[in-house]
Structure formats: C-alpha cells, structure tokens
Amino acid sequence: MLKKLLAKYNIFYGWFMVLVGILIMGVAYGTVFNCFSLFTIPVSEGMGYTRQAFATSLTIIFIFFTIISVFSGKIFQKIKLHTVMCICAVVLPIAYFCNSLCTKIWQFYVLAAVQGICIPILSFTAFSIIIANWFEDRRGLAMGFTFMGSGFGGFVLNLLASTWLANHGFAFAFRVLGIIMAAVLVPLVFFVLKVSPEDIGMKALGAQENKEGGASVELYGPMLNKAMGGSNFWLVVMTAILIGFTASTLAQSITPHITDCGFDPVYAARINAGYFGFLCFCKITMGFAYDKLGMKPTTIIAMLMVALGLVALYFGTYKAAHIFVILGSGGCAAGSVALPMLTQAACGNRDFSSINGIVTAGNTLGGALCPFITNAIYDAKGSYNVALLLAVALIAVTILLILLIRVLKKDAAAA
User: Fold this and answer.
1) Domain 10-204+218-414 falls in which CATH fold?
2) If you average pLDDT over every residue of the chain, what do you get?
C-alpha cells in the first residue's frame, strides 16, 4: 500500500528507508553515544566513581563497536543483515535499561560490551550498506539524511534526558530511554525496514536509468586483501581514527566541561542539544557538498569546523564562545557522512562492505581512545583543556593525511 502511494506521487521508496534509518539511528546511536556525556557527572558522583572509571564504559562500547565493524562483512555473509538487526533491536534496549540496575562499575562494563555489539548493526555499519543498496544516484545526499538520525536523536533526547536527570535521577533516565528505544526499534526493524530494493521487487535509484541506457553499474577497485597492501587504504584508516578521536573529544566534552566552567548542568545539556541539532543540518548539507565539491575539499572544511568547536570549548568560561561550540558540530558529520564517501573514493566499490567495515572500525577505535584519554587528562589536570588542545593538533595531522589520499580512477582501477 505504501509502495503504491509513494509511486502515485512519484516518490522513490528508498527515501522512506532513509526516514526509517533516521529514526532507528536516532534512538540507537543517539541514545547510547550522544547522551552518554549527560550521565558522566551524575553517575560518577552518585556512585562514587572517578570520571575515567565511568568513561571506561564508553571506551568498551567503542571497542566492541570496532570489533563488530571489522568482522561485519563476514558476519553478513553468514547471517542475513536483517536477521542480525532484529536480534539487536531486542537486545540493545534491554541492555540499556539494565544500566539503571547497576550497583557495581563492572556491571556497567558488561552492559557496555553488549551495547557495543549491537550499536554498529543498528547504525553506520548497517546503513552504509542499506543506503548503498537503495541509491546509486544521489547516494551522498541519502547518506547525509540517514546519518542525520544520530544527531537528531542526540538533539531531542539530550533535551528530554537532561530534564529527567535533574528531576528524577540517572536511574529513571536510563529506564525511560530504554523503553523509548524498544518502542521505536522493534516495530521499525521487524516490520518496516527493507535492506535491499530487491526485497520488494524494486531497483536502486539510478539503476533503472543505467539499464535503459544499456550500461550496468561498474565495479572497480581492489578487494580487501589487495587494498591492505597499498598506502591509500592505510591513509584512509588513519584518517578515520583521527576523525573519530577529535570529533568524539568535542562531542563528549561539551556537557562536563561547560558544567565545570560554572554553568548549570541543564544549560550545558542545552548547548549539547544545540550541538546535535546543528549536526543534523550539517549532515544534510555535507551530503550536498560531497556531491558538488568532492571528497577532499568537503572533508577538510569539516575538520576545520571541528577545530573551531574545540578552540571555542577551550574558552568555555565565556558564554559567547558556546555558539562556536555548536557550530563545530558541523565538522563532526565527517565521522559518519564523510567516511563511506572517502572509502569509496579511495578504494572503489568492488569490496566496499569489507573495506568500509575496517574504516568504520578505525573511526570507532579513535572514539574508543577518546573517553579514556580525555578523562585521564581530566583526573590528572582537573580540566579538559589539555585534551582539547591535543585534539586541535591532531586535526592538523588529519588534514595532511586527507591531502595525501589518492582518489581512485575507475579506468585505472579496472585495468
């Protein structure tokens, strides 16, 4: 029925899958990752942990996210992607809800491992494949809209969770967020999501035109084993690691650092929500930018925006700087929108799923290092300022790596 309705108004069904992706990523990634910083101070102080001890649970999430991303290609060869997503849609809300029941730090760590396994299957790793299945044309725009979901979820849920934390405590907030997650994930993943257009007798956007023109979609680039023997692959992986670290440093430091600067926690959470709200907009515009400007200029502009946000957060005692912290979120879209585009530009599409899994793993590895290092610096120095300056320096290295990446030409790759 929906398929016929969309066809009546000449709307490609794949855009409905983009909407589904926005909602799934919003409650999954948007809750687990983008709301984490809201809990750092309440849980640490309420349970008597150091910030580094509690932040280690985020590092564990990232580590397992990385492991699953690395092996995602092999996993999806043995088990259907949709089947794995259905399992994770049930397990993830339960694990997140159980955070409210923890009385020991190791319990947070165990639940973090479970969440880390589920999140990539319900976010970037899965939807990089799903959007690639549905879109041959306008893929950058579709990626931008879909990955906007993590920022959209962060924006909405930060506003709600900050109120629940202030009025009812962190246990209540964990429970309500877990219930919301289940209410959205289970029906959408089980009954609405379609991994491929072939599942409902359709073709990807652009595939029909190619067929009518007598041409098929050209596969180019190396397989994973061969790609790993070249410098281009490792340049992309190192870039992904640094993007993960620097973007996560900005995202995870906003709420605790602004609170440490003397501002009310609810105000700090609103700045964090503004960050994710602007991130939504920038993920869309970044999709346009990749289609119009190309890979390198867009990614470099993004990294400069992250640097702006980090410098502004360094001067977080000044309220006027907070608007630039929000603007810095635009560059953090590079961690989701940029990497699939960067991977295909550098390594082609022949073995995209396997190569992109490694690149995504690199990105999450950078994110895994972030909470451990930044909170260790905080515990040693009593401030996040040194960590913020370290991230700015690493952005300079990231830009250099981007400049060194060679864009793969289809003709040369096929030869």
Assistant:
1) Growth Hormone; Chain: A; (1.20.1250)
2) 88
